[in-house]
Amino acid sequence: MKPTLLILAAGMGSRYGGLKQMDELGPHGESIIDYSVYDAIQSGFEKVVFVIRKDFAEAFKARFEPRLKGKIKTEYVYQDLKDLPKGYAVPEGREKPWGTGHAILMAKDVINEPFAIINADDFYGREAYKQVFDFVGDSSSANEYAMVGYALNNTLSEHGTVSRGVCEADTNGNLVNITERTKIGYEGEKIFFYEGEGKTELTGQEAVSMNFWAFKPEYFEHLEKAFVQFLDEKGSEMKSEFYFNAVVDAMIKKEEASTKVIRTDSKWFGVTYQEDKPMVQDKLNQLITDGTYPEKLW
To answer: What is the pLDDT of residues 12-63, one digit of tens each?
Structure first.
């Protein structure tokens, strides 16, 4: 069964400013999403599901439908703060979305096959999509997942610190632990993560999660149960977030699932800050020059 690509596109870029999911970066107005979907099609994916918000759905569909029609099946699902399990309500005054785990849950009724998830504003590289596609074809267990691990030094911004999940794998290449480092950046040529008043140097070769994962459809059941537990424990907080990878981590610790770390040579890049935009445009132009992409994608 061929996998579906689930694109998390509901968030506005607070640090970036504006709806970067539709920012024109390619020579003919292509966004990073265009390149992601193109790479997925080239790698064998047959369907793409977008998690968006209703307030920009019309503009989003008008942008992508004409480009993708006839090339890949498309579905749209909506992340809404009020979309909660029966018996639960949004606490008064809360405006912050519930997080990535909640966003993925929005797709549970339209995905019945293995699926990969990505961020809308991240460029992951063709090879990574092929590796995920091959993993799905080779994996038979309902509770075997995968995470694409990028070398840390291929994922940093020169314009500020970033948050990264630093991964630890066992001798079989299965994920053991993810440590969320919320502040990683350059000092000259060196890379550090900052914690309180202290800092620790990193090599740059650490495998980090950039939110490119592969799951089986049964994962939705685990996610639903975990979301109810999250709401019981933290649902009354104004800024609590439900992260899908925390659910995976808990399952690994209980030996309810395993997650293969797929080390990739693909180069990741993204537009965390407005200042990143010229760099992304240059890299896309280089990939066009190299023949990876046609000048006009669609």
So the answer is: 444 434 455 567 899 999 999 999 999 999 999 999 999 999 988 888 899 8
CA distance 127 to 131: 6
pTM of the predicted protein model:
0.92
At 199, the amino acid letter reads: K
End-to-end Cα separation, the chain, in angstroms: 26
Q: Which domains does the chain have, with CATH numbers?
A: 4-148+208-289 (3.90.550.10)
Sequence-separated (6 or more) residues with CB below 8 Å from residue 230 = 101, 240, 242
Q: CA–CA separation, 93 vs 22, rounded Å?
A: 29
Residues for the chain: how many in total? 298
Q: CA–CA separation, 190 vs 153, rounded Å?
A: 10
d(CA 128, CA 268): 10
